[in-house]
């Protein structure tokens, strides 16, 4: 599986495109809001001959959902989230303008993900892992074969997701990291929602929030 990161919007959010030799592609957390960002996403897909087959959100804070409707409408795919985060998604229109996104267009989920589900596309399978704390319905996507995690805002290089937003809880987040992520092999690469990738082993050893 190839992981491509495109960083969008003022929050510097990482949008991930996952694809393999089949050319089928999954988009995770599209943060593209401006037209130029949408065009950048579209160009990458066209240049690489990809077919978008799924649209996933790790969680539904505004910076991770700004491009949901664009992707859903452009590629004819339904949005998939964890049901516990639907309340977070439905709240976005109430504050989008205050954050500088007056043109935000809502895209509601077509189906729900849950712990233990397998997200399949092309020759690839991702395991859905429920990891709340940053958001009540936060999930991460684990590719066991390639030892990679698309991790959203749970674990960052040297840091963790913030827990001061509605539905956040520090103790829950720490427990999610320790019981859901730190039980994965040390060599697993974590691709977070912001900033550079890291590994499980590095964060076990150096992350100041988890020593």
Automatic annotation (TrEMBL):
GO molecular function: hydrolase activity; metal ion binding
One Pfam family of this chain: Lactamase_B
Listed cofactors: Zn(2+)
InterPro entries per UniProt: MBL_Glyoxalase_II, Metallo-B-lactamas, RibonucZ/Hydroxyglut_hydro
This protein's UniProt keywords: Hydrolase, Metal-binding, Zinc
Domain Metallo-beta-lactamase: 12-194
Keyword Hydrolase: yes
Record has Zinc as a keyword: yes
PANTHER family: HYDROXYACYLGLUTATHIONE HYDROLASE GLOC
Protein name in the entry: Metallo-beta-lactamase
